[in-house]
Design a protein that fits this description.
Rossmann fold; 6-stranded parallel beta sheet; 20 strands; binds thiamine diphosphate; binds magnesium ion
């Protein structure tokens, strides 16, 4: 086939035409026709695509998802068929559940052998049918490539979801057909996308404004759908005298230095958010499908309006009276002139008082002694030292709770993690994806020790091979080394009433900082509270990526600030049945002032 343009070459060109500059992936013979195209483009000096090799395909899919979350662009990942495609799945579901556009390109055995139960032959359409339900297609002829690529990208972006293209090995090497013949059955597609303006109908906006203007205690839970709508959110909150609570993925929607921003809501939330949601008389939900419905007012007890770009997300969590399908910024802007500005500021004053009380109390709780280090102290001290443009990535575990409560978002900060899927292992790959997209900004990952062992230390291998290319080489990882799958241990105690069972919950104590040093990075192990600030300062001043191995206390309760009577009883019963950490936990429940919900 010589230097003739192949389907593989055309695929790269077409991705380029869509603005794709980075593909996360891993090699395999099922995609050799695409890898060869990458090599050819590089050799010719015309390579526009940066191939980011990851240590595991799951990391590639998580990074593609994170790339999309942090940049707003489509994320693209590439893997061989069979095992490679299977490894992608978890990261793809992360994108799907958080409504991010990600395209997966996977190889397949050559068409001639398909159906013969050949090596690595997996029925990929079935494998990907759910995660890429909106579009999964196999390219079986070169004429098909153009429109399948165009549709896969357009559908992923327009519907904010996952799509997939399967390309058998032999098809990748066939001569490209860039312009299919003008014949019956041929498709002639185009590249490119521009977002539409989505605003609800005027009558619905007026109905929403009536509901909101009639309320005297308005609470605004805002989520990831409100990212980019800060000025509009502020204007509406000011007009309504409302407080704003944030869903976890919407943590960076508004900065936490606004006095009426109550922080995160829900199980991982603050007293201020949860109290505001309990005492409000009107809800305005913006860009959120907030999962913790028990923290919203009793169904039907308050009037409620919801704004969401995805109409399928409307009226799901709360019986909302007015559902507005629209872009958050556009919709709030259209709503604003219809609202009656509230002059009575009593409710706003109450909310601001709860916010101030909360930050004071949490600052004190972060400084309570623990054995050996209180994990809250790490996020508290980190938060005080982060530059206003830092990018923070979280994981799934107790560190997510500390991030949710103690990280004070300021300036241009971005914060993300696996929200809907809540998969362990988002921390380090998300930080690396952020760093590749914004090499001049500080990126920080917060991850549990279980997550580090699951994939974080593998992702550090990818960090180690890339950091020398960054204008700012700082990427800090805080590994919360509590030797416990603590988040689940707490759920078991509080929800299911049984004590920590070491056989399922303990994880080995690994030297994460020493591991970083092995890779040519830097690190330090923190075993005393007085070492926390020096370690953070060292990480933020380092000339390369840095891992803080923070030996923290699993007995510090990863619980909401207030427990119901039932939850208290369940916890008490669990502890009494021989929990190895019973004494330490009872002491920490006091120290951390875990209260009783009214
Ligand atoms: C892939 C995956 N497996 C299992 C879980 C269930 N899970 C949620 S949090 C958690 C514990 C995480 O442990 P670690 O990373 O050590 O953090 P810690 O809670 O101890 O701070 C587990 C097992 C999950 N969310 N994702
Ligand atoms: Mg742990």
């Amino acid at each position: 086939m010589g230097d003739e343009k192949t389907v593989g070459d055309f695929l790269l060109e077409r991705l380029g035409a869509w603005g794709v500059r980075r593909v996360f992936g891993y090699s395999g013979d099922g995609i050799n026709g695409i890898l060869k195209a990458l090599w050819k483009a590089d050799r010719a000096g015309g390579g526009t695509i940066d191939f980011v090799q990851t240590a595991h395909e799951e990391l590639a899919a998580l990074m593609a998802t994170a790339h999309s979350k942090y940049t707003g662009e489509v994320g693209v990942c590439l893997a061989t068929g069979g095992p490679g495609a299977i490894h992608l799945l978890n990261g793809l579901y992360d994108a799907k559940l958080d409504h991010r556009p990600v395209l997966a390109i996977v190889g397949q055995q050559a068409t001639a052998g398909l159906g013969g139960s050949g090596q690595q032959e997996v029925h990929l359409r079935s494998l990907l049918a759910d995660v890429a339900a909106d579009f999964v297609e196999t390219v079986v002829s070169p004429e098909q490539a153009r429109h399948v690529i165009d549709r896969a990208l357009r559908i992923a972006i327009a519907r904010r979801t996952v799509t997939a293209i399967i390309i058998p090995h032999d098809v990748q090497e066939e001569p490209a057909v860039e312009d299919p013949p003008h014949e019956h059955g041929m498709q002639h597609s185009s590249a490119g996308w521009s977002a539409p303006r989505v605003i609800p109908a005027s009558a619905d906006l007026r109905r929403a404004a009536e509901v909101l203007s009639a309320g005297s205690r308005v609470a605004i839970p805002a989520g990831a759908g409100a990212l980019g709508a800060a000025p509009e959110l502020i204007a509406v909150a000011e007009a309504l005298g409302a407080g704003v609570a944030k869903a976890l993925l919407g943590k960076a929607v508004l900065p936490d230095d606004l006095p009426y921003v109550t922080g995160t809501a829900g199980w991982l939330g603050t007293d201020a958010s949860n109290r505001m949601l309990r005492e409000c008389d009107t809800l305005l939900m913006v860009g959120t499908t907030f999962p913790y419905t028990e923290f919203l007012p009793k169904p039907g007890s308050v009037r409620a309006v919801q704004v969401d770009l995805d109409a399928g997300g409307l009226g799901v969590r709360y019986p909302t009276e007015v559902n507005l399908a629209g872009d958050a910024a556009e919709t709030l802007r259209a709503l604003l002139p219809l609202l009656e500005t509230k002059t009575e500021r009593g409710w706003r004053d109450d909310v601001e008082g709860w916010v101030a009380d909360w930050w004071r109390a949490e600052g004190e709780r972060a400084h309570q002694p623990a054995s050996p280090v209180n994990p809250k102290l790490l996020v508290h001290e980190l938060s005080a030292r982060l530059p206003g443009d830092a990018i923070v990535s979280g994981d799934s575990g107790t560190s997510t709770v500390w991030l949710a409560r103690h990280l004070r978002v300021r300036g241009e900060m971005m914060v993300s993690l696996s929200g809907g899927l809540a998969t362990m292992g988002s921390g380090v790959p998300y930080a690396l994806a952020a760093k590749l997209a914004f090499p001049g900004r500080l990126c920080v990952a917060l991850a549990g020790d279980g997550a580090m062992q699951m994939n974080g230390i593998n992702s550090l291998i990818d960090v180690a091979r890339r950091w020398r290319q960054w204008s700012d080489p700082r990427l800090a990882v805080i590994a919360f080394n509590n030797r416990d799958l603590a988040y689940v241990s707490w759920e078991q105690r509080v929800m299911d009433g049984f004590p920590k069972y070491p056989a399922t919950q303990d994880v080995p104590d690994l030297p994460y900082a020493a591991y970083a040093e092995l890779l040519g990075l830097k690190g330090v192990r923190v075993e005393r509270p007085e070492d926390v600030v020096p370690a953070i300062e060292a990480a933020l001043a380092a000339d390369r990526p840095f891992v803080i191995d923070a030996v923290v206390d699993p007995a510090v309760p990863a619980l909401p600030p207030e427990l119901t009577g039932e939850q208290r009883k369940t916890l008490d019963q669990a502890l009494k049945q021989g929990d190895p950490d019973e004494r330490a936990i009872r002491e920490q429940l006091e120290r951390q002032e875990v209260g009783n919900a009214p």
